[in-house]
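DATA CLASS: polypeptide
GOAL: derive structure tokens

***
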Amino acid sequence: MSRVTLQTIDSAPDSSRPYLENARRISGFIPNLLAALATSPAAIKTYVTVSEINNNSSLSAAEREVVQLIAATTHGCSFCVAGHSATVEKKHILPANELENLRTHQPLADEKLNTLAYFTQQVIATRGAVSDEVYQQFLAAGFNEQQALDAILGVSLATLCNFANSFAKTPLNNELQPWAWSE
């Protein structure tokens, strides 16, 4: 049971309602993450705004999903792992074996994405103070300084979602059950 009210379009504060309506229009349902965030108009607005900014960053869709899944598995956010797994699978963003590797903390076959995964883990573990060696490995893999900052942007988005879900004890929507995950 959620410790935060899971808002509906009818119960949400007025300024949160458009975000819930948009989510239902796009997904066909309201993800419980958004239902929980809608309790705070500022929180849901921040989530939607930063999501849009992240989606327009210098990282590819596959790279953004690597960041999101590494953050979610590292932070233990089963809701976000399920949600991002569903996105990756439905949109064919990554091969199935790479998705499974991300979900189970295994190395990725794609060396560049594996380097991004490690960089993301190090960003989280060091609170951004990655070593020069880790940063040089990131650059040597073909990434640049803008992409380093955009990976950190992705971690910031994930942190909002992961921590809000952990705090709220957000239940997984039935629509996301096929991608359920636990540590």
